[in-house]
Design goal:
The protein has 310 residues and is an alpha/beta fold. The chain folds into 3 domains: 82 residues, Winged helix-like DNA-binding domain superfamily/Winged helix DNA-binding domain (Arc Repressor Mutant, subunit A); 106 residues, Periplasmic binding protein-like II (D-Maltodextrin-Binding Protein, domain 2, 3-Layer(aba) Sandwich), CATH 3.40.190.10; 106 residues, Periplasmic binding protein-like II (D-Maltodextrin-Binding Protein, domain 2, 3-Layer(aba) Sandwich). It has 11 helices and 13 strands.
Length: 310
């Protein structure tokens, strides 16, 4: 039995397909199949039911996969100990980022990080919070950047920054004459929201709930992007709320429609999160330092009221 064989088993369990698993582990399909078959012969059991499409784990196979995850994690932890002792920061690193953070934060830190740590091979995925939690608990993500707190027992959170909510209000809107807005000014039925699945949407809804606003379904419009929401406000369909970093990319003309909240403003906490196993912690620490450093110069707000994303 080898660590490589166990990694092949985990890949097939994840993708439920030998060909896809071989592609993900960078070997030929016959090589992967042969190594798994050798392991099955050594253990004298079948890990996979190959008669099913897609391939399924046998009852004992499920138990084998559970143990294989632990063994592979511990082998990686051993490599981490060696890397930390040598002061080495490198290797594969799988990072998830939520959609409302990805387009603004990634350009701010990616070039700095890859220049300083060229031996880290980043694989970055845009994922919803739910997908991040699922993948992380299954061992398919090393870390992620998401809105917190998530209240997940097996996941650690380290706050990177606090990002205020900012109102985007067209000239025709009832709040357009106000220079500073308050949470009590908001009407949930007047706010254009991101579509379901975005934690920023949930944060906005929670913000409105904190003001004890009711929500009737006489009109509901949702979109997958802030750009679309901004355009729709100018069609007289309401106002919207944006995360502060997104406002930095708006045009001078669009900036005239921004309205900031009375202090302390409502805000979301954005954190780097990772499994409690703390594998690849040296890379996580390096990423934390880079991101918190670049964002510190962009966000000056510190006294904020954190709104839960869940």
């Amino acid at each position: 039995m080898t660590i490589t064989q166990l990694k092949y088993v985990l890949a097939v369990a994840e993708h439920q397909n030998f060909t896809k698993a071989a592609e993900k582990t960078f070997v030929t399909q016959p090589t992967l199949s042969m190594q798994i078959q050798k392991l099955e012969e050594e253990l004298d059991i079948l890990i996979f039911d190959r008669s099913k499409k897609p391939i399924e784990l046998t009852t004992v196979g499920k138990k084998i996969v559970s143990q294989a995850k632990n063994i592979v994690n511990e082998s990686e932890r051993m490599q981490d100990v060696v890397d930390q002792e040598k002061g080495f920061i490198g290797g594969d690193f799988r990072l998830g980022i939520i959609p409302t953070v990805m387009p603004t934060l990634l350009p701010m830190f990616l070039k700095n990080f890859t220049s300083k740590y060229p031996k880290v091979h980043l694989k970055i995925e845009e994922l919803s919070t739910e997908e991040i939690i699922h993948k992380m608990l299954d061992g398919h993500l090393d870390a992620a950047i998401a809105a917190t707190p998530l209240q997940q027992e097996k996941i650690k959170e380290r706050a990177l920054y606090y990002e205020p909510f900012v109102g985007y209000i067209p000239e025709s809107h009832r709040l357009s004459q106000k220079k500073i807005i308050e949470v009590s000014d908001l009407d949930i039925d007047d706010i254009l929201l991101l579509e379901d699945g975005h934690c920023f949407r949930d944060g906005v809804i929670n913000l409105c709930r904190s003001s004890k606003m009711s929500h009737n379904e006489t009109f509901q419009l949702e979109s997958g992007s802030f750009e679309t929401l901004i355009k729709l406000t100018h069609e007289g369909l309401g106002m919207t709320l944006l995360p502060y970093l997104h406002t930095l990319d708006l045009s001078e003309k669009q900036h005239k429609h921004l309205r900031y909240f009375k202090e302390p403003p409502p805000a979301r906490e954005v954190s780097i999160i990772y499994p409690k196993s703390e594998l690849k912690l040296q890379i996580i620490d390096a990423m934390y330092q880079i991101i918190s450093g670049v964002v510190r110069g962009a966000i000056k707000f510190q006294d904020v009221k954190i709104i839960s994303p869940v």
